[in-house]
Amino acid sequence: MDGKPRLLDQVRDQIRLKHYSIRTERVYCEWIKRYVRFHNYKHPLEMGAAEVEVFLSDLAVRRDVSASTQNQALAALLFLYKQVLKQDLPWLGEVVRAKKPARLPVVLSIQEVQRILSLLEGEVGLVARLLYGAGLRLMEALRLRVKDVDFARNELIIRDGKGQKDRVTVLPVSVIEPLRHHLARVRVMHQQALAEGGGDVYLPDALSRKYPKAPWEWGWQYVFPAAGLSVDPRSGAVRRHHLDEKRVQRAFKRAVTASGIAKLATPHTLRHSFATHLLESGQDIRTVQELLGHADVKTTMIYTHVLNRGGLAVLSPLDRI
To answer: Which of 33, 34, 241, 268 is catalytic?
Structure first.
């Protein structure tokens, strides 16, 4: 035994060094385990482009996974070879990425949004209103900290969003009072936790070492905390995490069903609807791009294809008869 860490431990160390999320860590480790098992526990250093291609092909052909899932598996393997095993990868160009189908996002009308939101109550309803009213991704809403809600400026500051970028977006005026009342209840819960010797939260990027008292401070608390305590899978610390996204997803699915809307809508559909409705109202596409946090305006341009213009503003010949 030379004391060298196991492969997955090396993967976890590199992921944490680069400040990737716990979700990315779990997904990457799972794909790497599946890759090694698929090739009868052969060490990745003994494999290359051919083995990667066979594995990805099996996912597509035998397991019938989507292009995005196939590319996720490839990303995990490339991370393994480049970042963990420090391989030069001369064969990288040989690995073919699955082409994602060009699909238009599902978008709800303003009336459909109103129907769904009317069926969502409490903190889940408040989260849903922020998804639509501020164009947030679900995890961006759930990871909001108290300090990043600016009532004076009607702004939300999204920290470490997709691509590890910060951005500022709008805080809907209609949400301000319900959000104030919600935070008042959360503060009482936090003060009670402090009195019982708890009340700390997870801080990213080792900020707790730089600011030792910060995990107990009100400003760092989650806007939408979980009801109970849980164990941090990385540190083992028992503390209060944010609200579980599955609660929002399940409640939203029930609301869509109850509303009678036939579209395959998810909480993320509210973000799509936010962008589309802003563009329909005449908002500049660059502003929408900034609010959404898109790196390239081409990503935002997809919403111009689903604007309410009746088939790209073309008058059907049937309507001329």
So the answer is: 268
Q: Which residue has the higher pLDDT, 112 or 235?
A: 112
Sequence-distant (6+) residues with CB within 8 A of 245 are 138, 139, 142
Pairwise CA distance, residues 209 & 211, whole Å: 6
pLDDT digits (tens, 9 = 90+) for 136-149: 999 999 999 999 99
Entry pTM: 0.81
pLDDT digits over 174-193, tens only?
Answer: 999 999 999 999 999 999 99
Residue range 97-111, pLDDT digits in tens: 667 666 788 999 999
Give the angle subtended at the CA of 155 by the CAs of 301 and 163, to the nearest 5°: 50
* Overall fold of domain 7-94: DNA polymerase; domain 1 (1.10.150)
Instruction: Compute the average pLDDT of residues 217-230.
Output: 95
Question: Which pLDDT band holds residue 1 (cuts at 50, 70, 90)?
Answer: very low
Is 185 marked active-site? no
Residue range(s) occupied by CATH 1.10.443.10 in the chain: 110-305
- Active-site entry in 33, 147, 162, 241: 162
State the catalytic residue, choosing from 12, 190, 272, 294. Answer: 294
Of these residues, 12, 129, 137, 272, which one is catalytic?
137
CA 148, 152, 154, 158: dihedral to nearest 10 degrees?
-10
Residues of the chain with CATH 1.10.150.130: 7-94
Tokens encoding 221: 């608390």
- Token pair 């030069």 in the structure block, residue: 88
Q: Can 271 be counted among the known catalytic residues?
A: yes
- State the catalytic residue, choosing from 12, 271, 272, 277: 271
The answer to whether the CB of 319 falls within 8 A of the CB of 187 is no
- CA–CA separation, 105 and 99 (whole Å): 17
Looking at domain 110-305, its CATH superfamily turns out to be Intergrase catalytic core (1.10.443.10)
